[in-house]
Amino acid sequence: MANEILTTDNIELNSAFSTKEEAIRYTGDILVKNGYVETSYVEKMLEREELTSTFMGNYVAIPHGTEDAKKMVKETGLTIVTVPDGVDFGEGNIVKVLIGIAGKGDEHLDILSKIALVCSEEENIQKILDAATKEDIINLFDEVN
């Protein structure tokens, strides 16, 4: 994965949240802080979650904005937040890895396919959760072709 999309600034290890809204807001705020999206994008991520859960299985959620939020994306960005104790995304779905995405145009489609490859393997989710450093997570994504 292009390292400019996933950097140590975009990764937060061992976070804890009491609600999915708090978790999504935190994930979105990293995208805002690092200049990928306008502040209003975070509300669109919450709106998207209301429409359909971004829970993907294997303890992973991929919060992102609604279709009309694309105009708020300055550049394609990705953030990864680990939540070892999990956060309830409703219907018994526990999320331990949040992968926030902001895609400019169709650029996010490549990112999504790479995320799908990494996250389809339960052992990779465990590797993300066990990562001692942010670099460990970047290396895991770099290993997947």
How does this structure look, described?
The chain is built from 5 helices and 5 strands, in the order βααββββααα. With about 140 residues, it is of the alpha/beta class. The chain has one domain (about 10-145): Mannitol-specific EII, Chain A (3-Layer(aba) Sandwich). Helix 1 packs antiparallel against helix 2 (about 40-50). The longest helix has 14 residues, at about 20-35. The relative contact order is 0.20. The model has no long low-confidence stretch (mean pLDDT about 90).
What's the topology here?
Layout: E1 11-12, H1 20-33, H2 41-51, E2 55-57, E3 60-61, E4 77-88, E5 94-102, H3 108-119, H4 122-130, H5 134-143
Parallel strand pairs: 1-4, 3-5
Antiparallel strand pairs: 2-3, 4-5
Helix pairs in contact: 1-2
What is the number of helices? 5
Q: Order of strands side by side in the largest beta sheet?
A: 1-4-5-3-2
**Strand-residue fraction?**
15-25%
CATH fold name, please?
A: Mannitol-specific EII, Chain A
C-alpha-based Rg, rounded: 14 Å
Count of structural domains: 1
| Mean pLDDT rating | 92
Q: Tell me roughly what share of residues is in helical segments.
A: 25-40%
Total strands: the figure is: 5
Distance between the termini: 8 Å
The rough form would be described as globular
Query: What is the CATH architecture term?
Result: 3-Layer(aba) Sandwich
Could you give me the name of the CATH homologous superfamily? Mannitol-specific EII, Chain A
